[in-house]
């Protein structure tokens, strides 16, 4: 094999291991010291060493074990520097032995879920939980995460550093919470994963590779959680919800890159396998007898898909699902969608009346979907001037150019 | 790891309580302290006198400044502390939640730097 070819193979093996095992290696290295930053540093050095060594000496039979062996030395050295007392010496020995045993075994224990629970711990600022999980479990860099969350890279970097310091210094454990607090703590993990997914999904065009990847990565995390906690209905519900949304990604744009609303999408373009998987997950979740927000949202996606595929009107059922969801979440965003569904069943005035109930929420003043929904219902109700005004605000608030074009076309159509 | 549980509460609340209630309160703290000791988690604890008895000191440009009163005026005051040993933050938080002070005030949990 010529050197170029060796380089290529080493690089692709390293990339594959990074993608598959990064979070597992970080979680395992940091589980004992709780020092995530040190584990990340050690691991990135190990990857650099791999790229230097592997082309020359060939890829090792157990690349994960190889990386762990290199990284663990650095982690132990770092820990030794931090601790001075007697107790720590004992801890250090136990830690070194544990890491050694794992490096030589074929399978590294999977502690990613414990790491996610640490990142989404109530002691960590809620706004940084999703970015933190993306960084430490998936290895995304601060710049990529910052642009997805619309935060400056410097400030994102600082907040991530602070959050990791808190995990280490406050002694936040890497563990799956006990039964009685699991549901509540799992919610924060699921919320963080969904936040990551939503950021990826905001790029409806899928033109921004970094954002599209974010949605895929969130689905990957959703899979990790459901594999490790297969009996948690809400985890299954979240994965189903994400798969349903992802299945329609391609259909959200036409050939010219214009936004296509759900009602106009071609169901042929949907990813049937993903939808099938989502449906199976929802069924499994419903058998566990614990209803929750993500299952309801998944069920709503499922109802929309069913209606479009069969042509059978199911708006009554959709309204009922929104009722349940609104009662559970009290979210104004849910209230908007519920108002649109009500309009389908009982007409535009009833929809507007339902929308009125949340109009007082100050957060909605800057929320594009509220104004788009209002414009749509006003226009159906024949209130052209109000509709035009609402479209104007919706257009001004939208950051995606193709959605903006879509709204502008709807606004222009009012005049006819 | 060691954690300092700082108990913040409204001082006036104590004087407003009936004698029976005060007795009950004292007993609850005693039981909590005992539980911490039994578990080997107790490193130290004290109840503090009211902020009316507090004095602050600082030295600026070589001159010491002594002021009557607490460091910060607030609705709730530092009323006492427990220094505990716990394996991690979750264990410390669960001790804090059991403290009677969590029901009538707020407890700040702060990790202690390991020296």
Task: Give a quick summary of the entry.
The complex is a heterodimer of chains A (416) and B (115). Chain A is mainly α and 416 residues long.
Architecture overview:
The complex is a heterodimer of chains A (416) and B (115). Chain A is 74% helix and 0% strand. Chain A contains 19 helices and no strands. Chain A is mostly helical. The model of chain A has no long low-confidence stretch (mean pLDDT 87). The longest helix of chain A is centred in the N-terminal third of the chain and has 31 residues. Chain B is an alpha+beta fold. Chain B has a single domain, classed as Dimeric alpha+beta barrel (Alpha-Beta Plaits, 2-Layer Sandwich). Chain B is 35% helix and 37% strand. Chain B has four helices and six strands, in the order E-H-H-E-E-E-E-H-H-E. Chain B has a four-stranded antiparallel β-sheet. Chain B has a two-stranded antiparallel ribbon with strand order 3-4. Chain B is flat and about 45 Å long. Chains A and B meet through loops of A and helix 3 of B.
Sheet with most strands of chain B: 4 strands, antiparallel
| Class by SSE composition of chain A | mainly alpha
Largest sheet of chain A: none
SSE string of chain A: HHHHHHHHHHHHHHHHHHH
Assembly type of the shown chains?
heterodimer
Mean pLDDT over the residues of chain B: 93
User: If classified by CATH, what would the architecture of chain B be?
Assistant: 2-Layer Sandwich
Q: Look at the structure and name the CATH superfamily of chain B.
A: Dimeric alpha+beta barrel
Radius of gyration of chain B, rounded? 16 Å
The end-to-end span of chain A amounts to: 70 Å
Bulk shape of chain B? flat
The strand count of chain A comes to: 0
Beta-strand portion of chain A reads under 5%
Q: Biggest chain pair contact, residues each?
A: A-B, 14 and 12 residues
Number of distinct helices of chain B: 4
